[in-house]
Specification:
Length: 116
């Protein structure tokens, strides 16, 4: 449900990040996809998506991430995801973990393409 999900922006050292919280399902996939597209369209060589507070992630969310990965690759943008255990597990189950650059949730905040 949209009321349980949030898409916020944060800027750290000049790098814009999308922070996603709550549940990602069919009810919120449209604003999730729009937020991902806006992040990729920005003037960045890297697109950071912090999903450490995502508690539910279904096939519609997977589809949005796969689409974002394709768009990012076409635009020359590196898509970097910091997943919650739930998101990480789902990506592993559907054999997509290797398709994304994953940052460990226990690492410091996303900066310059790598954990601090």
């Amino acid at each position: 449900m949209l009321k349980d999900s949030q898409f916020r922006w944060s800027t750290d050292e000049g790098q814009r990040r999308l922070i996603v919280t709550g549940e990602i399902d069919l009810a919120v996939v449209r604003p999730f996809r729009e937020a991902l597209n806006a992040l990729i369209a920005g003037p960045n060589s890297r697109a950071y998506v912090d999903m450490t507070a995502v508690s539910f992630f279904d096939s519609s969310g997977i589809n949005a991430l796969v689409h974002a990965r394709r768009v990012a690759a076409r635009e020359g943008v590196e898509l970097i995801i910091k997943p919650s255990p739930t998101v990480r597990r789902i990506l592993e189950i559907v054999n997509l973990r290797a398709g994304f650059q994953i940052v460990d949730p226990d690492d410091a905040p996303l900066r310059d393409g790598s954990p601090s």
